[in-house]
Amino acid sequence: MLAPQLLIDAFGRVREGVYGSVQGLGSDDLVYRPDPAANSIAWLVWHLTRIQDDHLAPLAGVEQRWTADGWYDEFGLPFDRAATGYSHTAGEVGAVRVTGRLLTGYHDAVHDQTVHYLPTLDSADFDLIVDRSWDPPVSLGVRLISVIADNLEHAGQAEYVRGLLERRRAGR
Predict the structure, then answer these.
(1) 100-117 and 41-60 are packed helices; what angle lies between their axes, rounded to 10 degrees?
(2) pLDDT given for residue 148 in this prediction
């Protein structure tokens, strides 16, 4: 299996986690937080999708789906267009109140852009330095793995919060 195929599989697993955490939940469920400082499913899915969009669109040489497709306007969040959720406060986490349709629609658009980009890469591309602001500088391969790791962690957290919500409903 080639590296792009492995990466496509990994991003597919992120997508499965997004759908597993969001499907069938209403807007009130998506903003459930186990405590006031915890992240909600809505925020976690929005954030992981923003990170994928923000980090991969420039690598692919395209505009982020967030702005190109009007998702920023459709979500109507009280954040700057460039916000990804990094270092958000509990209050900002609570401001992400959207539908599952919006979350999965935006995620699908970003996922489609990602899986369109990945097959264009060859093995030499993974060593290209894409970010010199870190020490050591970040290569394309490291950036891709970093995004996958971050996305999978947040998708797992969203699924965990969903499990807590379901236990709460069941009175356990």
Answers:
(1) 30
(2) 98
